[in-house]
């Protein structure tokens, strides 16, 4: 009986994490185009290429991690145990996803700041009077 | 049971590798183009060679991992081991991808041809 409930837990876990990852990545990288536009100073083709590469990397690392930690080592005996184990797993995965999201956001903000510092200085030179 | 697992695993890995490879192939071209100062024919050649190398490394690694597989007794173990092994491959892929992006970033930072107008 033990193996049956473990299997159910895996069957529930996998679609949920895939959907979560898709939703977060979709939202993040739809909105990151604005940052990329700023970072590459309006060069659309290279901005979109970088965006796509970051998106692929985000999917790869998060889905890989989710698949990798799927194993539940103890035998699940009843429904209550299954719910508790599943919520701990999915909650832990959500936290790791959130950390990755904030890390990506940090990278975007940092890139934007650096790009501004590089492209802007000429316009801020003070006028010499007299 | 193990044979079935290997077939499903190789199918999934093949699909992921080829899809991701094509994404890298299309979007990485512009970076090489910037690094080589707009030499189109050389860029396309290098890009194609990189794609082939990527396929070789990944599919070879995926096939190599099969030798570490446990014996499978039930459907649950089949499902679990396929997912965990795919997860390992995908994580490796991700780490390689991030290393590549860092390399591109450092090269372009060094010669400043791609980010500077």
Automatic annotation (TrEMBL), chain A:
The chain crosses the membrane at residues 6-25, 46-70, 90-109. Keywords: Membrane, Transmembrane, Transmembrane helix. The keyword Membrane applies. It comes from the Bacteria. This is Integral membrane protein. It comes from Chitinophaga pinensis.
TrEMBL record, chain B:
The chain crosses the membrane at residues 6-25, 46-69, 89-107. Keywords: Membrane, Transmembrane, Transmembrane helix. It comes from the Bacteria. This is Uncharacterized protein. It comes from Chitinophaga pinensis.
């Amino acid at each position: 009986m033990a193996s049956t409930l473990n299997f159910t837990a895996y069957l529930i876990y996998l679609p949920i994490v895939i959907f979560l990852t898709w939703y977060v990545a979709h939202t993040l990288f739809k909105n990151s185009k604005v940052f990329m536009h700023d970072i590459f100073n309006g060069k659309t083709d290279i901005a979109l290429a970088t965006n796509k590469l970051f998106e692929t990397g985000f999917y790869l690392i998060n889905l890989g991690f989710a698949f990798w930690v799927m194993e539940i080592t103890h035998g699940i005996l009843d429904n209550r145990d299954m719910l508790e184990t599943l919520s701990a797993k999915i909650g832990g995965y959500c936290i790791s996803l959130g950390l990755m999201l904030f890390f990506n956001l940090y990278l975007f903000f940092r890139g934007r700041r650096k790009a501004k510092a590089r492209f802007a200085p000429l316009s801020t030179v003070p006028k010499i009077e007299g | 049971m193990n044979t079935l697992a290997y077939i499903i695993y190789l199918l999934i890995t093949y699909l992921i590798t080829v899809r991701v490879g094509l994404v890298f192939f299309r979007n990485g071209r512009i970076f090489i183009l910037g690094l080589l100062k707009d030499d189109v024919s050389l860029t396309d050649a290098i890009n194609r060679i990189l794609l082939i190398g990527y396929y070789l490394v990944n599919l070879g690694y995926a096939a190599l991992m099969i030798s570490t597989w446990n014996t499978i007794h039930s459907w649950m173990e089949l499902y679990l081991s396929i997912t965990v092994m795919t997860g390992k491959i995908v994580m490796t892929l991700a780490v390689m991808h991030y290393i590549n992006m860092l390399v591109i970033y450092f090269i372009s930072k060094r010669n400043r041809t791609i980010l500077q107008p």
